Amino acid sequence: MKEMSLRDLNTLAQMPEDDLVYLHFTVGMWIRNNFIYPRNDKLMQSCREVSGDKYLHWAQMHMVILHELWKKLQETHKLKW
User: Fold this and answer.
1) What are the φ and ψ backbone dihedral angles of 49, each rounded to 5 degrees?
2) What is the distance between the alpha carbons of residues 55 and 77, in angstroms, rounded to a whole number?
3) Residue 65, burial from CB neighbour count under 10 angstroms (0-12, 13-18, 19+)
4) In whole angstroms, how far apart are CA 67 and each of 51, 81?
5) pLDDT per residue over 21-54, tens digit each?
6) Which of 51, 55, 62, 77 could pair covalently with 73 via S-S, beta carbons 3.0-4.6 A apart?
């Protein structure tokens, strides 16, 4: 997500996993508008494979992507005390 600032990436990295749902109408909407719609069959297949849900619906894809981004940021942007 090259479009995200370092501050936003760090903020996302510090969020508890359970709080990702609160990004549904912000980052989630941006993901949907830029990657999911118009329909992206390759991305859908990838999200289904990653999530392990072969029936994953289009409306759920943004959360799979957001969760995978969050996991990656845990390795690269998590502040260590």
Assistant:
1) -65, -45
2) 32
3) buried
4) 10, 23
5) 999 999 999 999 988 888 899 999 999 999 999 9
6) 77
